[in-house]
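Allow me, if you will, to draw on your knowledge of protein folds for a short while. I have a record of one protein: its chain in single-letter code and its fold written as C-alpha cells. The full record is reproduced below for your convenience:
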Amino acid sequence: MKKHPHLHDRFFKSIFKIREIALEHVEDYVPSSITSLLNLDTFNLDPTAFSDNWMKEHLADVIYGCQLNCPLDFQLALLHEHKSKQPESDIRFQILVYIGSRWEDDRKCNRPRTFVLPSVIYNGLKKWNKRLFRESFAGLPKALYPYLPEFDYLLLNLPAMTDKEIIKRSEGKILASSLLSLKHAREPDYFKKNFEKLFNFDWKRYSTSIWQTFLKLELYFISSVTGFTTDDFKRLAKPLPPELNHYTMLTMESILEEGIAIGRKEGKMEGLKEGKMEGLKEGKMEGLKEGMEKGMEKKALAVASFIIQNYPDFSDDKVAAVTGLTKRAIAKLRAELKKHKPNGKTNGRSEK
C-alpha cells in the first residue's frame, strides 16, 4: 500500500475546520483547568490569525480564537498542529516561529498580545518523545537554562491510545470516528474490519450539513488510503442506518466521478480503459498524490524562505526539521536567496 502522509494532513485540516468537531476536541482533551477559563461561546476559527495571507497559509494548520473568562480582554489562540511523524528537532522550534510571528502581527495591527495555546495531534508510527526544550541544546551550561523559552504544549498521542480509550473519551461523537481514522490510516484491513465502528456516532445530534460534510470527508479519506472499490463500500455500508447507507452510496458515486475526471486530466487513460473503478484507483490516487506533493513542497519552500530571512539563529538542520525538507534543499535555497540579497548575504547560517 502506498503512503499518503499529505492526505493525513489534508483530512485533519478539513475535519478540524468544522467548529463542532474542533470544539469536541477542546471539551474532551483539553484539561478542565484550562477549559474552565474559556468562553466557549466565542470559540470560532480565528479570522484575525494573521493580517498577512502568506503567514496565514504557511505558519499554522488550524487556529481557533476564544475569549477568556476574566475581567481583562484576553484573547486565546488555540493552535492545532498535526504531525504524521515527529520532527528531528523539538516541535517547540516550529511553535516558536508561529508565536513570534503572531505577536509581531498583533503589534502591526495594534491588537493586544494573543495568548497562544499549542496543541499537537500525532498519528505517526514511532513513539513521540516529549522532552524538555533545554534538551535540544546538548552541553549547554545549567546557568543558562533560565534564559531559554521553556514552555509546554498539549499532545494528543493517538498511537499511545487504544481504540476503546478514544471511543470512551468522545462517545457518540464524530471526533472519535475522525481520530480512529487518523490513527489507523496506514492499515487498509482495519477499515474493512471496523467500518461500522467508524460510523457509529450519534448522527442525529448534528445538523444535516455537518454529518454529511464529515461523511464525505471520511469516505474520501478512506477511499484514498485504501483503494476500496464501490462494491467494497456497498458491502461495508450495509449495516449502517438507512440514512447513512444512502448518503454513503451517493457520496461514493460522486467520488467515483471526481476520480474519473482527475484520471483523465492527469493522463491516466489506462485506468479508464479498465473501467470506472480502475480510473478512480489509478487516476484519482496518482493524480491527487502528485498534485498534493507538489503543493506541499511549494509550501515547505515558502516556509523555509521565511525562516531563513527572518530567524538568523536557525541552522540548516533546524529549518529542515521544521519544514520537512532535506538539509541539501535548505542549503540550495539559502544560496539562491543569498544571490538576490543586495549585499550578497542572508540572515541565517548554514551548517556543513
About this structure: The first helix runs from residue 5 to 16. The longest strand covers residues 75-83. The CA atoms of residues 259 and 280 lie 4 Å apart.
